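Fold this sequence, please.
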Amino acid sequence: MGYLLKILNVFVLASIKYFWTPPYVKLLNLEFWETFLAVEAGGILGFIFYYYLSGIIIHKFLEHLPKLYCCTPITFQRRVDIWLDQFKERRRQRRKFTRRNKFIVRTRMKYGMWGIIILTPILLSIPLGAFLGKKYYERKRRFLPLMIFSIFLWGIISFILFYKFPSIFR
């Protein structure tokens, strides 16, 4: 029973923060193939789960936001209106093209979908990559299969790094 819980723990960790699961598995001293399959399945199924959950959250939240706003107390509505007015005023007064804005636009234009696909398993978390992919690249049919392939490939690379060359990380 304890071994099964450890595998389930690896599966859940892989669905959230994928790249740090192989070192965790190495610390637990689990069997290679079973944990490799648990990590790969956790990453891929976790991404698919968060991808479709993000779609539901984005679409349903935007759909129900006006209804939710009408049902809130008047004091809360006034606070939100004041905050929105202040936000719009600050937005009008600020400079349009700052260094940071240019960097963000340049990075998105240069790397775009491929940047999310490559960086999600190693730097970003699986839920964040799924949310960004659903928000910006929902209409691209290649995004989902390429992301699954990226998760699978990074799983192989990370297991090779942490199992075959453990002295690098000491």
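The mean pLDDT is 81. The two ends are 31 Å apart (CA to CA).
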